[in-house]
Amino acid sequence: xxxKVLVVDDERDIVELLTYNLERExxxxxxxxxxxxxxxxxxxxxxxxxxxxxxxxxxxGIEVCKFIRTxxxxxxxxxxMITAKSDEIDRxxxxxxxxxxxxxxxxxxxxxxxxxxxxxxRSRRPADDAGxxxxxxxxxxxxxxxxxxxxxxxxxxxxxxxxKLLTYMVRHPGRVYTRSQxxxxxxxxxxxxxxxxxxxxxxRLRSRIEKDPAQPQxxxxxxxxxxxxxxxx
Length: 233
Hints:
This protein has 2 domains: 4-124, Rossmann fold, CATH 3.40.50; 134-229, Arc Repressor Mutant, subunit A, CATH 1.10.10. It contains 8 helices and 11 strands. The protein has helices at residues 12-24, 35-45, 61-69, 88-96, 109-124, 160-170, 179-187, 196-209, and strands spanning 4-8, 28-32, 49-53, 79-83, 101-104, 134-137, 140-143, 148-151, 154-156, 219-222, 226-229. The strands form 3 sheets. A 5-stranded parallel sheet has the order 2-1-3-4-5, sandwiched between helices. A 4-stranded antiparallel sheet has the order 6-7-8-9, with helices on one face. Strand 6 (134-137) and strand 7 form a beta hairpin. Mean pLDDT is 83; it is low at 127-131.
C-alpha cells in the first residue's frame, strides 16, 4: 500500500527535494507551503504522516500541530516536526504539542526516510493483547481495538506514540522502566531518538490524563531509575 505524506514547508526547494526522494521510495507526496493550506490538505487527503516545518508563514507549525492533535478526524496522524533551529526548547515544544518525532535542518534524506518508516510502522502496530481489549483503572479506560483513551466520560486525544507508550506501561503495571528501556520498547530501533524525548512524552501524557500532573496517580516517577504505571491491586 502506498503511504501518503503531507510535506509542509515554506521553502519550495526543500519541498521539491523531499518530494523527489519520497516518491523514489514509493510514497505519494502532498505539498503545502503554509499552515492554513496544510490543515486544509490534511482534512481533504487524510495522509498517513505529516512532515511539518516549525517556521511557517501565517499559522505557525506549532499551531498546526496543536490543531491536528485536537481534531478528532486527524489526531491519529503521526507528525514529524522539521526545524532549522537547534535549540532544545523548540524540539521540546514540538513534542509537547503532540509531534511524534523531530528532525533538524540540515538533515540526511536517508535518515528522514528511516524515521518516516519507523514512525508509520509504530503508529500502525496493533496494541498487544493485555488479557482483554478494554482496560480500566480508576477514571482511566483504554479501548485497545478502537485506540480510544478516556478519563471518565471524556475522550482524550493522544498521538500514536503517546498511545503506544501509555498502553505499554499499562500492560506492565508496577514495573519500573528506565528511559533507555522505554525507548527500546516503544521507539524500537530508532537509535537517533534522545532519552529526553521520553521525559517530554511522559509530561505530555500526564497533562492529558492526570487530574494533577504534579501529583500523578497513573504515570509515576521512580527517582534515580525511570517511570512506571501505578501498582494495580
